[in-house]
Design goal:
By secondary structure, the chain is α/β, with parallel strands linked by helices. It has helices spanning about 60-70, 85, 95-100, 110-120, 190-195, 215-225, 240-250, and strands at about 5-15, 45-50, 50-55, 75-80, 105-110, 140, 150, 155-160, 170-175, 175-180, 200-205, 230-235, 255, 260-265. A hairpin with a 2-residue loop joins strand 7 and strand 8 (about 155-160). The chain is globular. This is Phosphoribosyl 1,2-cyclic phosphodiesterase.
């Protein structure tokens, strides 16, 4: 780290797949486990910076996650994509405009904004709300897959990813940290953007192949291509027991877990 670089930390709010772990109605060993690292809420992280807290995605478990980690305020949100498990906790941002003194900025691609405006149309109505806080105050800020952008004084580089054969999503790089959940293909140009990261986060659903997510073996191979000193696997299903899987992984590659905090620099 140079004397001009800055540092912060990332908190894993959630590390689970779209249905979470335990899954409703499932009696498998992982879903019934007493090990807290096997309790996985839907995927999101926060990034603490000098300028405030950046949230990546708004999963349905967001309120519980923020309370659990004692995070009192979110200053800005980045969206990887618009799937329900990454978006449908958006209404939990409703309290923050009171403390920010204005709307919460949402950094997203145009198709994600379109989904937000459709799914949360009540937040964008021109009708005067019945009372303050009746609807979330939100301000969409357009980003694209090619250009870095500034959030709270921090430069964010988008990382284009494939999430199945017909769906494009974004990962994000901030300094020596990169977050690439919900993908089964990282194009060569995106691998180039990941060179030099020290902490790499990538989705790894299970051991069996999946049409839209990396399995563990594929994620390990991508981690080797990126070459980070530490890789954390996220978006984990109930097929993977935390302790067993961690013991089987190569050095420098581990399963993330809800509440994990890691330092980063930019």
């Amino acid at each position: 780290m140079t004397k001009d670089s800055r540092s912060g930390f990332v908190t894993f709010l959630g590390t689970g797949t779209s249905v979470g772990v335990p899954a409703i109605g499932c009696d498998c060993e992982v879903c019934q486990s007493s090990d807290p690292t096997n309790n996985r809420t839907r995927c999101a992280i926060t990034i603490e910076t000098d300028g405030g807290t950046i949230l990546v995605d708004t999963p349905p478990d967001l309120r519980t996650q923020l309370l659990r980690e004692k995070i009192p305020l979110v200053h800005a949100v980045l969206f990887t994509h618009e799937h329900a498990d990454h978006l449908f906790g958006l209404d939990d941002l409703r309290l923050f405009p009171f403390r920010l003194g204005g709307p919460v900025p949402l950094y997203c691609e145009p198709h994600v904004e379109a989904r937000i405006r459709k799914s949360f149309d009540y937040a964008f109505t021109e009708r005067t709300p019945t009372h303050p806080g009746a609807t979330p105050q939100l301000e969409c800020r357009t980003i694209g897959p090619d250009d870095a952008f500034d959030v709270l004084g921090v430069s964010v580089m988008p990382i284009p990813l494939k999430h199945g054969p017909h769906f494009n999503v974004l990962g994000f790089r901030i300094g020596d940290f990169a977050y690439c959940t919900d993908t089964n293909e990282i194009p060569p140009s995106s691998i180039e953007r990941l060179q030099g990261v020290k902490t790499f986060v990538v989705g790894a659903l299970r051991h069996k192949p999946h049409p839209t997510h990396f399995n563990v073996e594929q994620a390990v191979e991508v981690a080797r291509q990126v070459g980070a000193s530490q890789t954390w696997l996220t978006h984990i299903s109930h097929d993977l027991d935390h302790q067993t899987t961690t013991r089987e992984l190569p050095d420098g590659i581990d399963l993330a877990y809800d509440g994990l905090k890691v330092p980063i620099a930019w």
